[in-house]
Amino acid sequence: MSAVELSGSPAPTELAAVLAPRWLNAALAAHAVTRSAAPQSAAITDVEVVETLKTTATKVRFRVTYGHGDNTSPGTLPRSFCVKGMFGADSARHLTSGTSRTEALFYRHVPKGALRMPPCWYAAVDEHNGHGLILMTDLVAEGCRFLTALAPYTPDQASESLEVLAELHARHWNGKDLDRLPWIEPKLRFLAHDYPVSAEKLDQLLAGERGEPLPASLRNGRRLKQAMAVLADSDKDRARCLVHGDAHAGNAYVEPDGGVGLVDWQLVQRGSWALDVAYHIAAVLDVDTRRMHERALLRYYLHCLAVRGAEVGSWNGAWDAYRRYMAYGYFLWGITQRVEPAIVNEFVRRLGTAVADHGTFEALGV
């Protein structure tokens, strides 16, 4: 029995179809086959939705009841899951972005190993419409706590998450084994040249509340797009590895043991280590904390890379790359429109201030 047989799609876009016990049982059975796991002894008989979170994608936390009639789960299966996908007509227009497809393929084909990320029970793509769906353990039910731009993120937590990024980067350093993942592509050129936002639209966005704390020289859409174009042109000559692409505070969580993990792999891409590290440090820490600790945090990241057999060269070269790639995160949050304004404003303030502090535009020659 498979999800394809039940629904006509391995990744339905209708949430009701996904939350049907029969579909969930088929998905878990498919997971057991693809992961060579032992079959489970009981089936899901009932589903209770706990929370629905909707941005571009929809995430639904839910509890299940198994057929043996008590509150325990068979084998290794959890009682609480989270499913993520582009559900409903209002999300259909986002399918063309390919982000849900990329994330589902990442969960399905990239070994987790020592990476701290949610345990995944099923991931599939409907190749007819490009929809990717992921069925994960509900981290909240497991006692994890998600972080946000509006809550403290400490330097120690940043060290934890930088170690996760170092583990990810080192695995595919200088392109190692990336030819086995042809669906993971560079995204900087698309964002710089083809993303459907004009310099005039960026001017409007940055002229609003989100850009108010920043100097006028930074709230310039044409200049920011030029910076991204220069970065994209130089990116092809940088060390190539697998990068998360969106490692801001809202995509990090703290496990019960204090370790920090990462979620939301929709923007996973090929690129420079500095894309992730500059964005991450400047986004997760408030401005004063970042100014005080960023050099030590960058040195710690480089140490974590070296321990894993990856080297970036000189400190001066690493620092220069760190400064230049600040433009990436600032651009991402400059164009963001479907997130709570308070969060957008805080990230733009943090990332824009980092661009100013590091003379990023000047370093890129724009």
Question: Overview of this structure, please?
Answer:
With 366 residues, the chain is of the alpha+beta class. It folds into two domains: 135 residues, no CATH class; 220 residues, Aminoglycoside 3'-phosphotransferase, Chain: A, domain 2 (Alpha-Beta Complex). 44% of the residues lie in helices and 15% in strands. A hairpin with a 4-residue loop joins β4 and β5. α6 packs parallel to α11 and α7 packs antiparallel against α9. The N terminus is likely disordered.
List keywords for this structure.
366 residues; alpha+beta; Aminoglycoside 3'-phosphotransferase, Chain: A, domain 2; 15 helices; 10 strands; 15% strand
**Architecture of the largest domain, CATH level 2?**
Alpha-Beta Complex
Determine the N-to-C terminus distance: 58 Å
**CATH 4th-level superfamily of the largest domain:** Aminoglycoside phosphotransferase (APH), C-terminal lobe
Largest sheet: 5 strands, antiparallel
Tell me the count of domains.
2
Supply the CATH class of the largest domain. Alpha Beta
Secondary-structure-derived class: alpha+beta
The strand order across the widest sheet is 1-2-3-5-4
Helix content: 40-55%
Beta-strand residue fraction: 5-15%
C-alpha Rg (nearest Å): 21 Å
Order of helices and strands: HHHEEEHHEEEHHHHEEEEHHHHHH
* CATH T-level topology of the largest domain: Aminoglycoside 3'-phosphotransferase, Chain: A, domain 2
